[in-house]
What we know:
One of its GO terms (molecular function) is ATP binding. Pfam families: ABC_tran. Belongs to the ABC transporter superfamily. This is ATP-binding cassette domain-containing protein. This protein is α/β, with parallel strands linked by helices. The chain is 33% helix and 25% strand. It has one domain: Rossmann fold, CATH 3.40.50.300. The chain has seven helices and nine strands, in the order βββαββαααβαβββαα. A six-stranded mixed β-sheet has the order 5-6-7-3-8-9, sandwiched between helices. It binds adenosine-5'-triphosphate (ATP). The site of adenosine-5'-triphosphate has 13 residues, from strand 2 and helix 1.
Amino acid sequence: MLHLEKVSKQYGGSRKEQVVKAVDDVTFTLQENEIFALIGESGSGKSTLAELIVGLQQPTSGSIKWANVQKNAPVSRLQIVFQNPDRSMNPYWPVKDIVTEPLRLSGLPRKQAYARAESLLGKVKLPAEFLERYPFECSGGQKQRIAVARALSMSPQLLVADEITSALDPSTEHELQQLLLSLKQSEGMTILYITHRLETIAGFADRVAVMKDGVIQEIGDTRSLLDEPKTAYTRALLRAGVFG
Ligand SMILES: Nc1ncnc2c1ncn2[C@@H]1O[C@H](COP(=O)(O)OP(=O)(O)OP(=O)(O)O)[C@@H](O)[C@H]1O
């Protein structure tokens, strides 16, 4: 569906700065209707890769292309949800304005946008009473559901979830993962799920790529990668149980 070919991103490189190869020669293809987990410890280049995929940054070299599409994808095909919902939500807006913001930005009149708000919340299993709430009246997990609902308003083919469960407690994280799993089926979308916690993806992600220092170390279906890791790095991560 979306193919990355030898994608690299360097930062710095002016006289005094050292060059940082945040993403180094990354090639893989995201398939239709899969959850693809990108795992890496802090600084491995995961967020940079996510930003390249959604077009917030341009690669230094390489290409990112939709299969069978010549020009760049329209923004609505891709939506990204970040780790910290407070940074992407206006604290003075009620939830009905937050979830419908992309619809209104794309030109839908407010009344028609509001008419879709309740069903968007329904998709993330939040009751309609949340429409009139403000972000400070919602828990962290509920705010992430609201952020997912806002992304769903654009019917994305690809949802990039950048550490969206990392700040949540384990049971809330599990609930949000279950929600993503059901949305993959009901919405027929692909989810790029970025995390530093390898131990959270069993039974959730279809495939996984392990990234270190900007380089993909290993890629494969989740069960085989967890059962028979091919690289010493992945084995060490599994032995450690968590990233350091
Ligand atoms: N704008 C920037 N300018 C210079 N270096 C950067 C910039 N953004 C990221 N880097 C560097 O690129 C590397 C990868 O960073 P990135 O944020 O992509 O990693 P990450 O895996 O998402 O880490 P984390 O999980 O801590 O967010 C790091 O060495 C980081 O210091």
